[in-house]
Amino acid sequence: MRTEFPAKGTPWEDLKRTMVDMGANDIDWRHGRNGMYVFYAGEDVLRVAKEAYTLYMSENGLGPMAFPSLKQMESDVISMGLSLLNAPEDGAGSMTSGGTESIMLGVKTARDYAASLGKNTVQAEVVVPFATHLAFDKACHFLGLKIVRVPQAEDRRANVKAMEAAITDRTIMLVGSAPAYPFGLIDPISDLSDLAEKHDLWLHVDACVGGYLAPFVTMNGTDLDIFDFRNPGVKSMSADLHKYGYCAKGASTILYRDKSLFEFQKFDCDTWPSGRMVTPSLGGTRPGGAISAAWAVMNYLGVEGYRAKAKIITQTRGKLQAAIEAIDGLEVFGDPKLGIICFGSPDFDVNVLWGKLFERGWFLSLTTEPKGIHLMMTPAHEQSVDQLISDLEELVPEVRASSENAEAPGFRYS
Ligand SMILES: Cc1ncc(COP(=O)(O)O)c(C=O)c1O
C-alpha cells in the first residue's frame, strides 16, 4: 500500500524514536557482523564525520565562489589523495559521490581524451579483467562504449597477455584494480602500465577499495606491487573515501596524472538563460557535508591513524585467513594482502554455509565464479573475528557432511 503524504507534521522526538526502531533488523556493523557496506573505524571517527558533516550540511559544493570553505576543503582532500598515490606535481582531480561516479567520470574523460586525438569513440572498447567492478559496465552503457571482459590469470588477477590479445584498433582504455572487489587482489599494474604505453592507451586504476588502505599497508611493511601513479602509464585513479577512508558516505576521489587530462572531465555549458556553468562531476548540487566530513576525518586520523587502522585490518584478515586455511574443506582464493578475503570449497556448496552464517547474524557477500564467501574486513572485525572463526569451525563439518545445495544464493544486492 502506498504511504500517504502526512496531513500534519510529527514532533522530531517521535520521528527519531520511530527511525531508531526501523533500524532494529539492520545488520550489526558496529560489532563487525557485516562483510560489506559499512566501514566502521570506531565511535571517535564516526563522531568526527557526523559533526563535520553537519557543520557544512546546508552548504553546496556547486558554488565555490559562495563557499570558499568547501573549495579549500575539496582542494585539500584532492591534494592529500594525489600525494598519497604519488601523482606527479601537476596531478589534479575532484571529489565525487562514490566509486561508481568516479569510474563513470574516469571512463568519460578517457573517451573524450581519445576523441580529442581523433579516434572514433562510438562503441569504442574498454578492456577490463574479469574481476573488475561492474561500475565499468554501467559507465560504458551510459557512454556508448563497449566493455570487453578478459578472463583472469590462474592467480585470479588480470591476465596481461590475454588483455593484450583483446586490444583492437577500437580500444581506447585499459583497466586494472587495486584491489578488485571479488577476490581482493591487486592486478599487476606495472605490467598493465607497460601495456598501455606500448599501445598508447589510457590506463585507469580502480583503487576504490585500496586507494586509502594499500598505501598504509605498505608503510606498515607489507611488500605490495606498486599500483599507483608511479607507473607512467597510469592516467587516472578512482579511490573511495567512504570505504577505507572511513569518511561519510557520498565521498570518493577521481584523480589524474596531470591537469590537462582533468580538463576533459569537466562539463562546460552556456546554453540556457541562467549563464555558464562548469561542473567537474556528474551532479549539479553537491553535498557540502560529504566534503567537510572527508576533510575532517583525513585530518583527524592522519597517516599515523590510518596506519594504525590498516594494521588492525591486515592482522585480523591474516588471522581469519590462517583459520580458514586450517579448516578441512575450505580454501582462500588467491593471496589477499589487504582487507578483502574470499574463500570457497572444492567439495561443498558454500551458498549453504552462507545461509547458516546468515542465520547466526553474519551478513557476508558471495561470489559466483567460482562460488565463494566474501568479506571486506574493517577495524570492527577485530572484535568479531574469533566468533566468525568458531562459527566456521562448527558449521563447515556440518555442511560438508550434508549434500544440501542452495540453487539460489541467499544474498542479493537488490
Ligand atoms: C573495486 C570497486 N570499485 C568500485 C566500486 C563502486 O563503489 P561505490 O559503491 O561507492 O559506487 C566498488 C564498490 O564496492 C569497488 O569495490
Describe the structure in your own words.
The chain is an alpha/beta fold. It has a domain at 50-298: Type I PLP-dependent aspartate aminotransferase-like (Major domain) (Aspartate Aminotransferase, domain 2), CATH 3.40.640. The protein has helices spanning 12-22, 43-55, 68-84, 99-116, 135-143, 160-166, 189-199, 214-219, 259-263, 288-326, 350-359, 385-401; strands at 92-96, 125-129, 146-150, 171-177, 202-206, 234-240, 252-256, 267-269, 277-279, 331-332, 340-344, 365-368, 371-376. Strands 1-7-6-5-4-2-3 form a 7-stranded mixed beta sheet, with helices on both faces. It has a 4-stranded antiparallel beta sheet with strand order 10-11-13-12. A two-stranded antiparallel sheet has the order 8-9. The two termini are 20 Å apart. The mean pLDDT is 96. It binds pyridoxal-5'-phosphate. Pyridoxal-5'-phosphate is lined by residues 98-100, 103, 133, 135, 177, 180-181, 206, 208-209, 240, 252.
Which features characterize this protein?
single chain; 414 residues; alpha/beta; Aspartate Aminotransferase, domain 2; seven-stranded mixed β-sheet; four-stranded antiparallel β-sheet; globular; binds pyridoxal-5'-phosphate
Major sheet characteristics: 7 strands, mixed
Q: In the CATH hierarchy, what is the class of the domain at 50-298?
A: Alpha Beta
At the fold tier of CATH, the topology name of the domain at 50-298 is Aspartate Aminotransferase, domain 2
Count the beta strands.
13
Strand content: 5-15%
Question: Which radius of gyration do the C-alpha atoms yield?
Answer: 22 Å
Question: What are the secondary-structure elements, in order, as H or E?
Answer: HHHEHEHEHEHEHEEHEEHEEHEEH
Q: Name the overall outline.
A: globular
Q: Give the fraction of residues assigned to helices.
A: 25-40%
What CATH architecture of the domain at 50-298 do you see?
3-Layer(aba) Sandwich
The bound ligands are:
pyridoxal-5'-phosphate
Mean pLDDT: 96
Please give the order of strands in the largest beta sheet: 1-7-6-5-4-2-3
Quote the distance from N terminus to C terminus.
20 Å
* Total DSSP helices: 12
* Stretches with pLDDT under 50, minimum 5 residues: none
- Class by alpha and beta content: alpha/beta
The H-level CATH homologous superfamily of the domain at 50-298, spelled out, is Type I PLP-dependent aspartate aminotransferase-like (Major domain)
